[in-house]
Predict the structure.
Amino acid sequence: MPNRNIKHLFIPESIAIIGASCEKGKIGHEILKNVIEYGYKGKIYPINIKEKEIMGLKAYKSVLDVRGDIDMAVIVVPAKFVPSVLLECGKKGVKAVAIISSGFSEIGNKNEEEVLVNTAKAYGISLLGPNIFGVIYTPTRLNASFGPRDVIPGDIACITQSGALGAALIGWTVLENIGLSAVVSVGNKADVDDSDLLEYFSRDKNTKGIVVYMEGVKEGRKFLQTAERVSKKKLIVIIKSGRSEKGAKAAASHTGSLAGSDKVFSAAFKQSGILRADTMEKAFDWARICSLPAPEGEGAVILTNGGGVGVLATDACDKERIKLLDDHKYLEETFRPYMPVFGSARNPIDITGQATVEDYFNAFKKAMESDKISALIVLNCETAAFDTVEFSEKVIKYFHSLPGWSKKPVVFNFIGGIKSKNAMDILNKNKIPAYPQPERAVNSLGALYKWRKYTKTEKKQIKKLDIDKEKIYSIINKAREEGRLQLLEHESKDILKACGLDLPKYKLATTIEEALKAAEKIGYPIVLKIVSEDIIHKSDIGGVKVGIKNAKELKNAYKEIMYRAKKSYPKANIRGILVNEMVEKGVEIIVGCSEDPQFGPVIMFGLGGIYVEVLKDVAFRVAPIDKEDALDMIDDIKSYPLLYGVRGEKRKDINSLAENISLLSYFSHEIPEIVEMDVNPLIVLEEGCKIVDVRMTLKEV
Ligand code: COA
């Protein structure tokens, strides 16, 4: 099978438009027009069954009639003709095709789409689409789309699953002065998918940031692994819509009902260094910072001519966890010369509305030159006395004078009318991010901090478990032989023990005598629990007794549990009673593992009781995760301060909790037979933590 290379979609030396038309308004006409008028320099071959010439270019009946090579073909004929023209492309040696035509898997015609993929594979063609509005790559002046023509060249690549949205977005980027390197409509993603494109743009020197609009992801794991690599080099921002709860509905267990949700997408993106934006505006606000350098250390400075806007930016910094420089002596010495006596050098540096362009620019320059200042937020309120355009032009000149551009991240905000808009346009056209609101400027700087923090993270250090697979599969097989998918408590605990996890002592007893013996060995106080596959909610029927202090209490408790179980479930298959070590009080945690329809094994964490059940205060990650990821996951839930100790309680062992979460995530990834696991509760103590109860469900075969 010949190798495919998607570069021919972006830098083809020749291009055929199959279905090019003389008729204005037809898609085949508009695409050819865009290709010609946007200034593509390679050879252009219009293909049309009946025309001899289209828009002054010689037309051909088929690609097979063209003498020269064809690198790329845009197919814009009705769906029923696409298989035959694609086959001709294969025979001609066309390297990449963009299939505009609709009428394939999006309307249920999966087989027809498969035929296209098979032909493309057989001939080593990169197939983009079908069902797309085209592809644009500004460095080669290629606009093979029926979207707007005038795309501003820049360094942001845009990948969109929605054609119409993508096309509309181009016009909007022009208004906003956002420069694009590429716009790719991916449509049905039959062959070329988001992962291929991320990979391509990660190597493309003309692209610094990638914005993706997606409704769903095919092969979620592959996508995340690619994104994880790519976002170390380039900024990736994703707008993900179409929140799927399908997986959640399919899953029966507690954990399962929370998985498959949008939270998993957010977590997966975070793990891979992707920034998830909830609006278009935010996505492009963030994408603008793709060419800014990483902040060196902490200590940002806000430079402003207005007190109020300075306060708004300070609040926004607090929200984004951007630390402001608070060396007041240094700030006073540095900035006092550029402000009147009533100005403030306390950060925000308020040089007041009286400041001249000269004052403002000098203060800005001083901040740029300071080694102590790691990032700069420049705010400006429009006044009659201040020429914002002159200021912007001075800033641009200054940036150009710097060897290799700026080494310090800086964002601008201009509040006001047309003068402010003009000042922003000047900066944005020069790839210096400027925003109309202080919060947007700070929020975008916050995005830079997040992304750059990810680029500096070390490779994951996942602690592996020494898993006794033979033992685990003997338990699994026994359950299967008995026709069970649900493992019993002691079986689930045996499995975790076979992975080397440390569990409180437990022993299954089938008689009072056995229970007494077990209790002696474990040591009082103990907990008794009924064991039966037919009794799920043990506590509800009085199947659990805690705090048993001696043999007498044990005998009574044993009898009572048996009596109640038989009364509530006369037909239940009772396996015995589990004698457990009693664990001291701590913070109760739930850790769940389940199979996400998009990403495979995922791990969930939350504080027990109402925090998970009512408030749904949970965090997800795609398994496996390392301890650092687990710590980050713990910080994700709102109720995490309870672990740090409240109302005089001591801080709990968060380190040990993170280690356990990481180990459980590794386990769930390694044993795919177990599709669901609920560790509930896991008790976090001041020192260490204990897995008190665990349930596992096997995959249906
Ligand atoms: N080889 C060469 N030319 C061919 C051909 C073939 N095998 N079959 C048809 N043509 C020519 C036609 O003669 C016509 O040219 P003409 O205008 O000179 O007659 C041209 O190709 C287009 O064919 P036509 O039958 O007129 O189709 P159309 O232009 O009405 O529609 C599509 C074609 C692809 C645009 C349409 O089928 C479609 O899929 N539209 C949806 C596109 C879309 O929305 N995509 C997703 C965006 S997000």
